Amino acid sequence: NDEYDAAVALYWLENYFLKSNRKAIVYGCTLDAYCCVQTLIAMGIPGENIQLVEPPSIYQSTCFNDPKIDDAVKQALVSSGVQVHSGYILAHWNDGDDVSEITSASFTSSKTPLTLECGVFFAYYKRAVDTDAFKAINDACLVYDGKLVIDAAFHTNDVSVRGAGTITKYQRKYHAEQWSHANFNSKEVGVHLATEMLRLFDPTLDQQTAPPEESLNLIPIYRNPKIQGGILPGCYYYLHVAKPGLDVPLATQKEQPDYGKEYLTGSPGGKPDYFRIHINQYNNVETLTCLTKQAFPCENFICLYGLHERFLNNMVSRFNEKLIPDFYEFFRETWCLALYHDRFSDFRDEVRELLVTSPGVGMDSIEDKVREVVDEDVPMNDAQKKQLLEIYASSGSKRAVETRLLSFLSYNYYHLPMYAKPGMV
Fold first, then answer.
1. Alpha carbons 63 and 75: distance in angstroms, whole number
2. Which conformational region is residue 6 in: left (phi greater than 0), alpha (psi within -120 to 50 degrees), or beta?
3. Measured distance CA(279)–CA(288) in Å, rounded
4. Is 93 helix (H, G, I), strand (E, B) or coil?
């Protein structure tokens, strides 16, 4: 469940299990389960001594939601000698005998039962609420409906207690049974919770005696991507960055008319390695998937999420012209280093502020002009586009954006010396 548990498990494996010749069972078909198998192999445990038992999936899609990655992981498991048993549910230990030490585990399925020797058992079946946590919630008289019940502002039924994270669920009045904090970026949820908690320490605000009334029963919108990654069997480095939301099979997503388009380079285990980018209907990066046997700067690649493809050096047109054979090499080039700078998002906010601000009294901003065209509910024609570009240039907005860009590069020149600036030529 946490780093301490992992450290204890690793210590026991290194000092006791490795000296024996017993079998290890990994139970689950989650990303954690596959990473656990790779960790056991990396510690020197032979693949023949590792049994991966996959229970029937409780979700519509696999944990990777990508057939190519599914196939690559399966092939890596077979190559390493790991025995995989799919569709089994844990039934009991030691054939049902009540003994102090577990020596075997029995599983049931729709076909035949299975009994395996068990020297160590790692369970990654599905996340549930810990018994001690449930007792604490129940003893505190907090409403519990499978999970701790909260409203959109993190309130439980006790005004002095807040709740957040995967242990919580929204009240039924929102009619959003499928949605919970597990669908969103945990760090962003934590920031929103901290913002709510800061109000308790503001001396200028009256303390709440009850959760405030909500005019609209709507759950909050979180925009930061969900990120998952790890090292998979076959020593594959894996990263998946996606829009927060419900788990929908990839094939179903592609059938939607507003899906957009995906761009691929390489293949799992090939040259170049596998890199998939999904561009939505607005030409923004909505999904990134990386699978490679070489380490890569994952923190940099995460920064690409949400950017328009024009930010990425006209990626779509370059890809269509077959100028990008390998996305890994493309995004390691020096032109994109500004995108990875920690102040780049602030720079984008500043540019947006320039475009939404009116250039003078009684004058419409660039954003207002664009909204007038968009609100007509007809595709923008070439004449309208040309007119907007002329307004953008003549109003001084273009010059202001260029000046702000040069200021950004000059201020951060010690990090970004590869960009040209005035006075260099």
1. 16
2. alpha
3. 9
4. strand
